[in-house]
Amino acid sequence: MQVSEAISSRRSIKQFDAGHRLSAPEIDRLYRNARLAPTSFNIQHVRFIRVTDPELRARIRPLAFDQPQVTDAAELVVVTADVQAWQKNPQRYWRNAGERGPIIVDSLLGFYRGREWLQRDEAIRSGAFAAQNLMLTARELGYDSCPMIGFDIDAVGRLIGLPDDHVVVMMLAIGRAAGPAWERGGDLPASEAVFENAFPQPSVSVA
Ligand SMILES: Cc1cc2nc3c(=O)[nH]c(=O)nc-3n(C[C@H](O)[C@H](O)[C@H](O)COP(=O)(O)O)c2cc1C
Q: What is the pTM of this model?
């Protein structure tokens, strides 16, 4: 499958075949590709919590507005990220970089130190890229997905033992579709979303 086809055929699916399971090689491919997503300074903030326990899924579902994907999809993953990953032995992110390694590590520590908002933004950015890789790989494997933030984030965080210095990025359901996607909700025209060089400026009246 071409990348463009994977992108254009990815839709958020809410009904999944509850009897279908992913094979071990498929699961391996999903998470290998997810972990290849780019991260700033190669910090690799993302931690994936695969919810494989049916009882845990059943406890999460009412916390997620009873969305059926939570219990029915073959794969349910809570995508989380370590906000403090930037300062947890960062030498390991550049261990193959030879003499450039320590320079890059110094640079990354200087970049994030004292900038809490940026540390959190970066963790969320990394998680979002990883989630997109999961969704596109699902398409390549013939599966569908649904990204979700419609759930009680704190309560789900407690159920999965989320460490204090981590954030929940989103939850993702992946599996064999058992129903069609909704009609596309209403795409903005390109003219409202894509600009050259700068935002269009309001015209100034000289009258
Ligand atoms: C961060 C995020 C959270 C979302 N949360 C939910 C959700 O909780 N339940 C749901 O059914 N869809 C959810 N969606 C799906 C969006 O409604 C969907 O992506 C959007 O309507 C565009 O449709 P499409 O994904 O089929 O192209 C979420 C999407 C994103 C990116």
A: 0.96
Q: Is 170 in the pocket of ligand 1 (CB under 6 A)?
A: yes
At residue 203 the predicted structure's pLDDT band, cuts being 50, 70 and 90, is confident
Q: What percent of the chain has pLDDT over 90?
A: 97
Query: Pseudo-torsion of CA 28, 180, 147, 48, nearest 10°?
Result: -20
φ and ψ of 26, to 5 deg: -65, -45
Q: Break the chain into its structural domains and give their ranges.
A: 3-180
Residue nearest to ligand 1 atom 17, measured at CA: 12
Q: Is the CB of 149 under 6 A from ligand 1?
A: yes
In 12-127 the beta strands, taken as DSSP E runs, fall at 46-50, 75-82
Q: Is 105 strand, coil or helix? A: helix
175: tokens are 């599996």
Counting ligand 1 atoms within 8 A of each CB, the residue from 15, 69, 145, 146 with the most, and so the one to mutate, is 146
Q: State whether CATH 3.40.109.10 applies to domain 3-180.
A: yes
- pLDDT for 134-176, tens place per residue? 999 999 999 999 999 999 999 999 999 999 999 999 999 999 9
- DSSP readout, 151-188? S-HHHHHHHTT--TTEEEEEEEEEE-BSSPPPPP--PP
